[in-house]
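Entry
Fold in token form

___
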Amino acid sequence: MKKVLIASTALVAATLISAGAASASEKIKLELGGYSKWWVVGAWQDSAFQANANTNGTQADYNSVDIKGDNEIFFGGSTTLDNGLKVGINVELEAGGTTDNTADTIDKSFVFVEGGFGKFIIGTEANGTALLHVMAPDAAGNTDSDGILTGGLAIVKPDAVVSQVSTSIDTDSDAEKITYVSPTFYGLTVGGSYIPNSSQDNRGATNIRTQTAGEIFGVGALYAKSFGGVDLKVSGGFVTYDLNQVNVAAPQPKDGVQEYSTGAQLAYAGFTVGGSYRQINSDSGAAGALASGNVWDAGIQYASGPYAVSFIYFESKSDGTVTTAGDDTATIYQVSGKYSMGPGVDVLATVGHAEYEDETGLARNENKGWAVMTGLSLAF
């Protein structure tokens, strides 16, 4: 694997040198893009959870109405050199309303080199398995880690509950990495990534021994083809890495973790059905966000003209505390709709239910409730 990585790095370096030698091509000019989404959300938490929400026995009183936003501005551009290579850059700036619960000012930043050999991406883009992943359809784009319900941003997810919010393998998030995506041959596209450290999103020290994923290798594939008006998409991915357990007295050995993902969609005459699955197997039986567990979704969508409506079901099970029997679970289902008022202008709506259960069974660690929301999405 390391030989492949060295060869890949050498190829990227060679193409960059070649890029510098081509002076007749135009200099890269950045263009603006992005999106702005704002939601008005009504949410009603479980009364027993609110009455016991705090560890000291005091209650919490959550608002039943809230405003949620998700905004990003994209700066990107590319140029095609005289030798046919395409070289480009993309930077995504968080622009307020951090629906994804992150404080990163720059969400993603990467450069790419593209040619007949495929595409190399260096920087903080999603990994190769996530780029090729297929999941259940949602008309409002209100699922995964960006979802108001699935992200735990409407019905509060208790801190004790461990759950995965995505069926794509996103353990590395937007850490620095090198990714390769092949050309598409007869509907098949493959890709892979190498990530030194899942927590490294800066120019700090190299991979240190902390309880994070390190030395991540991942491969994925996507098959997309149309057959007589039926559109088929099937994806699969595999990622392996070390979980660096740390002990102050004496660092413990590294423990291996493997993740698998798969997904499929079938579309015909305006209808789209699909689903996806992700499995995490931790050799160490570690508790917390990198614990063993699985997450899956299934859904159906119908789109006609400017209208689209969908239903999706989402379920996650994970080891919370390894010394306690049972699993932490998250169960979410929702109906979403979209109406396109014009190019890049959509009115969105979602109604759904979320339920979180902790293996301890304590009232303060379990919550459920309904949410109703409507929003406006602008793409530019």
Q: What stands out?
A: Residues 2-21 form the longest helix (20 residues). Residues 1-22, 247-251 have pLDDT under 50 and may be disordered. The chain has one domain: 2-379.
